[in-house]
Structure formats: structure tokens, C-alpha cells
Amino acid sequence: MRDLISNAIRKQALEALKTMISQPSFNQEAEKNAPFGKNIRLAWDKMMKICKDLGFITYEDPEGYYGYAEIGEGLETLGIIGHLEIQFLLKTLMNGITNHIKG
Fold first, then answer.
1. Which of 3, 17, 64, 87 is least crowded, fewest Cβ atoms below 10 Å from its Cβ?
2. Edge-to-edge strands of the sheet including 57-60?
3. Residue 17, phi then psi, degrees to nearest 5
4. CA 62 distance to own-chain centroid
């Protein structure tokens, strides 16, 4: 069976996943441009950088409440919708998952 994803892309995707899982992203007190707190803002910034590095066009609400990444045109447009916040108690679980991802 033919691989649809090259080993280089697979490795890049796994590294991005490890990066995002390792970033704490639980609600904290709001700050300027970080309505859900500093850690979620840091996770957001990492995700947007990953998307930009992959060639996506990104948009961010000026107040930091939402954004998106898209690539392609017309009927061949791919958009990404997600949620970066995790519960604080899941951090240990997420760190365990990161340690088991093989790249």
C-alpha cells in the first residue's frame, strides 16, 4: 500500500504534536491579548507558528478570542478548527503521551 504521507511530513507532524502537547494550556487570569491567560496564549502562538511554517494563511482576532489557519483556494481549501485548552489535571497524562510518541 502506498504511503500518502512522506516520512519527512510524518516526522514534522509528530514534532508539532509533541510541541503542542508539552505546552501547558489551562485557563488562567486574563491578560492583554490573552483573554484565557498566558499559557493558552503561548500555546496559541506556537500553533499559529506551526501553521505558518507549513504554509497556511492564518488569521487572529485582534483581542485573542479566535483565529484560524487555511490553505488552498476555492473548492480545494482546507481549514483547521481546534481547541487548545486542556484541563490542568490532564497535563500529566499529556506528558506521558508525549513520551510515547515515536518519530
1. 3
2. 57-60, 67-71, 78-80
3. -60, -45
4. 18
More confident residue, 82 or 36: 36
Average pLDDT over residues 48-59: 91
- Cβ neighbours, 10 Å, residue 51: 19
Determine how many CB atoms are found less than 10 A away from the CB of residue 39.
19
Q: What is the pLDDT of residue 1?
A: 47
pLDDT at position 49, please?
A: 94
On the question of pLDDT at 16 being above 50, the answer is: yes
Per-residue CA distances from 75 to 33, 68, 72 (Å): 33, 17, 8
Could you tell me which residue, 1 or 72, shows the higher pLDDT? 72
Find cell 478548527 and name the residue.
81
Indicate the length of the chain as a whole number.
103
Identity at 54, one-letter amino acid code: L
